[in-house]
């Protein structure tokens, strides 16, 4: 890596707090940064503090009336509308300000890349990929991913690829750029028949004039590291090579983990680390800029801090061995937060994330998912869906 990577972080991100027992608890961010700090991943890194995005920036994706609704929601009573005030998206104090700060964090990362200050940038507080132009959805008030992409386009970037590895379909970003051939959205996710939001079928390919701008790889329940990585390597590198983006934006949700309480894939922390390293290999070999964002992940103590510490380490080229013991001070802090909660002992799960490359087989459910995704999307890029070399 040439230029230092930009890491966006400030404790004010913790204000995005949906409250009570809501699964999206900001403690996961605090524990991640504490763990990365204690392992030395952030040594000497000047953290980039975010500023809240302005209305004109948020309105690159969202409608003005929706911003007004978000601002008014904390005092509007029960009839809020716009997807607000639901169990998934409860109203909380200063909701607009906290949500605008998350957007501002992803914009700060995008600006670092656009200005030439950094070739890579990461905002683990970002990745709120479900929010739609006029409504909240899936714990997401504003769609920082889509705002950052639109801002980059208006700043002169001509082609952007967005790859979403969250267990849930990246529906909000796909919707935002459905008709825009300058943006390729690729989502690998649990099959929509078995998980919200019920979208992300292989046949979803983009709007008229932008066919192929959306690619979806819906994976069967129970997919493990090897199958997931086989699907990734059988689709993503070839599509990126054909599309030739200038910037790669990745949504790095970790709710694909086998212990995540909200979904049914079966990846490990070692598999997550392999995903991040696959992204790094692609940007290094092909010269893409890389904007990495957080996303889902609801095993707050055992999974998210370790997985996203590996994300930070990978972006910074400061890889952490999965056999590294968890620091005693971090373990003590986490134990105080959740007495009796059994914590892992090392930075990995002891899993081998190796995979067998796809060879055109269709016997396995994962291989059928690969086949269907390639059949739908590859011909639109002049690629042979049946040739494993593509």
TrEMBL record:
Pathway field: Ketone degradation; acetoin degradation
Gene3D superfamilies in the cross-refs: Histone deacetylase domain
Keyword vocabulary terms for this entry: Acetoin catabolism
InterPro entries to which the protein is assigned, alphabetical: AcuC, HDACs, His_deacetylse_dom, His_deacetylse_dom_sf, Ureohydrolase_dom_sf
One Pfam assignment: Hist_deacetyl
Coiled-coil parts of chain: none
MF-aspect GO terms: histone deacetylase activity
Span of domain Histone deacetylase: 22-314
One of the GO biological process terms: epigenetic regulation of gene expression
Protein family (similarity comment): Belongs to the histone deacetylase family.
UniProt protein name: Acetoin utilization protein AcuC
Organism for this UniProt entry: Lentzea fradiae
